[in-house]
Amino acid sequence: MLYFDTTPMRTPLPHCILLIPALLLPALAICARAADERPVLLFLQGTADTPALDQEFATALELELETHRLVVETPFRFAAASHPARIDEIRPLAAARGADVVLWLDRLNERRVSLQVVSVAPGRAVSRSVDAVEGNGTADELAIAARQIVSDIYLSPIPAPSPSPSPPPPPPSTDPPPSPLRPFLGAGLNGAVGLAGQDGPPFQLGGDLSVGLAMRSGLHLLVRLELFGVPSPSTDGSRLSTFGVRPGLGAGYLHAIRAMAVGATLLVQIPWQRVSISDGGPTVRHDFWNLRFLPSFTVALRASRHLRFALDTGPGISVRSKAFESAIDGRTLFASPVVDWHLRLALIADFN
After folding, report:
1. What is the pTM of this model?
2. Which of the four, 45, 55, 194, 217, has the lowest number of CB atoms within 10 Å?
3. CA–CA separation, 296 and 293 (whole Å)
4. Judging by beta carbons within 10 Å of its beta carbon (0-12, 13-18, 19+), is residue 327 exposed, middle or buried?
5. Torsions phi, psi for 89 (to 5 deg)
6. How far apart, in whole angstroms, are the C-alpha atoms of residue 144 and residue 140?
7. In angstroms, rounded to a whole number, what is the distance separating the alpha carbons of residues 340 and 226?
8. Distance, CA of 146 to CA of 335 (rounded, Å)
9. pLDDT tens digits for 233-274?
10. Are 219 and 255 in contact (CB under 8 A)?
11. Are 347 and 185 in contact (CB under 8 A)?
12. Over the Cα atoms of the chain, what is R_g?
């Protein structure tokens, strides 16, 4: 007799079925990566002090803009910042999240809120706002407005940078090349007060003329002629008068700072002075020569293209002092100073 086993066979699952999850996981990862590559919208919540509205708006925005990935953050101290400060602050936030568009809500008053949409993408700098009355449906209304603005941002073409036109070549200059030397002429008023070796009237007053050549490096050479006198009132029946000239050569340097220039000058002078003394008898005249060094500090202020004012001050140092005595009683009526301090105010004309 033949017997047949009617028990159903248990066939083991093929091994290929076990490989299906292993094949699906990379595909799911690729799909998730593709989803992450959607344009990113960054929503900054907590700026309008309406947590419920922020949450409703974020939910409505995700439904309206499914083609974008929404990232929600609560930035620190963003709500208290001014609008320009917020614009500066959202750029690093957007760059860190890979977002091209940043949104937030502002409170205008107790009933009105404002949606701010700012694009930070290169070539698409856009800043727009939409106001709405807070109430039922406000979040949906603002989300629809945000979708329209974001669509306009991504649909607008990036303007190509327009090539800057090349400037026309400058016309040939007909002016002669500037000379390395610039002549100048100066006239001034000066005064001096004796500091050492002085006896008698201490003050000297006078004027001067000077000519020179200035170099474009700031160096200058000059020739100066000074005329001076010593005010001397009569005392004890004696009368004294003195005047003189001081020819000199000098060199200096001026450093220009816009319309002002500062520098120093050294002048070497050979003064000639005549002193006239009258003690009741015939007037006696004395002439003498000296050698004087005059270093000075200079400040010049330009008044126009060719005119400038200059102020010089510094010590005058003579190699010797000459004393003049009364023929009656032998007392010293006048002695020229060895060291004096001078002050000069001048007007200088440049020729270039």
Report:
1. 0.48
2. 217
3. 10
4. middle
5. -80, -30
6. 6
7. 15
8. 96
9. 665 667 777 889 999 999 999 998 888 999 999 999 999 988
10. no
11. no
12. 47
